[in-house]
Amino acid sequence: MSPRRLLALTPFLFAPIAHAAVDCANASDQATMNQCAGQDFKAADKELNTVYQQITARLKDNPEGKKLLVGAQQAWIAFRDAECKFSASGVSGGSVYPLIYSNCLTSVTKVRVAALKEYLKCEEGDMSCPVPGA
């Protein structure tokens, strides 16, 4: 391989390393901030899915309760998405839109996670709680 060709390919050889080493604590450009906000949302969404699965496992003997939970979650997802589209609409089309939108998704998702976690704390005999204790 010619040295010129090797030199031309060098950025592609190190791109995966640079991509993996994103320093979100010191993000200084819009693309990195957008990427980090997306990563934050993925983490919040992963936690949401974990808690949701714990609740559905507890509702395994309650198909009606599980059906109601699924409906509530679908409605919540529609609300979250609509709320965050509205919240970020002031910067629609701009380079900061992914940051604003992802930050909203993360914030709203964390509130939902906290609400779902409360269902996991239900005590035996609590008639106001739709999720049985562990």
Q: Which stretches are low in confidence, meaning pLDDT under 50 for 5 or more residues running?
A: none
Task: Tell me the helix content.
Answer: over 70%
Our count of helices gives 4
> SS-based structural class?
mainly alpha
| Shape estimate | elongated
Give the beta-strand count: 0
Oligomer: single chain
Give the overall pLDDT as a whole number: 89
The share of residues in extended strands comes to under 5%
What distance separates the N and C termini? 64 Å
The biggest beta sheet is recorded as: none
Report the order of strands and helices.
HHHH
* C-alpha Rg (nearest Å): 21 Å
Keywords, please?
mainly alpha
Describe this structure in words.
This protein has 134 residues and is mainly α. It contains 4 helices and no strands. It is elongated and about 50 Å long. The termini are far apart. 13% of the residues are buried. The model has no long low-confidence stretch (mean pLDDT 89).
What can be said about this structure in brief?
Helices cover 71% and strands 0% of the residues. The chain has 134 residues and is mostly helical. The radius of gyration is 21 Å and the shape is elongated.
